Amino acid sequence: MPIFRNKYNRCVNMFANKNGRTVHLKPGDVVTIPVKALHHDPQYYEDPLTFKLERILESNGGGMKSYRDRGVYLAFGDGPRHCPGMRFALTQLKAALVEILRNFEIKVNPKTRSDNQIDDTFFMATLKGGIYLDFKDL
């Protein structure tokens, strides 16, 4: 199992959950958060297996900040020890997308599957069979 699918922590003190559910951890117990399962939970994401870009837009009543504030978006981890490269990675992605969209007309190639099945053998979400795009200079 790839390590990036889960977030691992080790309990070092006795801990009793404060949300009313009885869960007791002893020193040395391992706590695992299955991030992929959390990101695909219909309790937090409506129709979670469908790609819906609009769900992360702030104009739709929340955006990514609302998911992070509820603790249900952990792509970069959370808290004071989240991924130190998060802001750099997001800035690089935004800059690359701007340049691509400014310079190319992009169409989905027919070789790309249309059933949007996720390949769960890879540690990051990716479509089975890959994504094929056709780029035309503007």
UniProtKB/TrEMBL annotation:
Major subcellular location class: endoplasmic reticulum
Topology within the bilayer: Peripheral membrane protein
InterPro entries: Cyt_P450, Cyt_P450_CS, Cyt_P450_E_grp-IV, Cyt_P450_sf, Insect_CytP450_Detox
UniProt keyword annotations, A-Z: Endoplasmic reticulum, Heme, Iron, Membrane, Metal-binding, Microsome, Monooxygenase, Oxidoreductase
Localization per Swiss-Prot or TrEMBL: Endoplasmic reticulum membrane; Microsome membrane
One GO molecular-function entry: iron ion binding
Domain of life: Eukaryota
CC annotations in GO: endoplasmic reticulum membrane
Record: residues binding heme: C83
Record has Cytoplasm as a keyword: no
Cofactor needs: heme
Pfam families, sorted: p450
Family: Belongs to the cytochrome P450 family.
Role noted for this protein: May be involved in the metabolism of insect hormones and in the breakdown of synthetic insecticides.
The protein, known as: Probable cytochrome P450 28d2
Organism of provenance: Drosophila mauritiana
Organism phylogeny: Eukaryota, Metazoa, Ecdysozoa, Arthropoda, Hexapoda
